[in-house]
Write a structure and sequence with these properties.
about 180 residues; mainly beta; Chitinase A, domain 3; Thrombin, subunit H; four-stranded antiparallel β-sheet; 8 strands; about 5% helix
């Protein structure tokens, strides 16, 4: 079966930046819905017409991936507003930022704690790969028809580099996929 809109594709990949530094490896096949919100449009477009066993090498510029880095999404917040167990690398949902944080911080963003100082915490609302051109080596493991339920939901829930927010009961996920 060839890849087309409204099908499910299982992929493995190696993701690198333009300097060749490895950013992520998906060694075991993971399924994504084509025609939904699981993959970047540039990846979906490149996969069209391919079948199981296909291998692709792509370079995706920031504007086709996670956008340019926006320094207006960096916020320096007072350390005392956050719990003592706060750690670098955790993500926080904007609507759940503690009272007293900068009111200009969009509440629909996810913020990564990038630095913790004795008096301040640095929150970054950019995607971790914002501003980075990525090179991705993809391999198509298998392709199947999407079910009506999968098409209706628009996702298999495995989104490309979905960042998981930190919750008190379960620490955030530091993987990119």
């Amino acid at each position: 079966m060839e890849i087309s809109k409204q099908c499910v594709v299982a992929l493995t990949w190696t993701l690198k930046d333009t300097l060749g530094e490895e950013l992520d490896v998906l060694a075991e096949p993971l399924e994504f819905l084509i025609g939904g919100s699981d993959l970047l449009p540039a990846i979906e477009d490149a996969l069209q017409g391919h079948a199981a066993g296909a291998e692709l090498q792509l370079q995706i510029e920031p504007e086709q991936a996670f956008g340019d880095f926006n320094d207006q999404l960096l916020f320096l917040e007072p350390r005392h507003l956050f719990p003592p167990e706060l750690q670098t690398g955790l993500t926080l949902e904007g609507y759940a930022l503690p009272p007293g944080c900068n009111p200009d911080a969009p509440n629909d963003a996810l913020y990564t704690v990038t630095d913790i100082y004795p008096e301040h915490v640095v929150l970054d609302g950019n995607h971790p790969l914002a501003g980075i051109a990525i090179r991705i080596s993809l391999k198509v493991d298998h392709v199947r028809e999407a079910t009506d339920e999968e098409i209706e939901s628009g996702t298999l829930g495995t989104g490309f580099f979905r960042i998981q927010p930190f919750h008190e009961e379960a620490p955030g996920n530091d993987t990119l996929h």
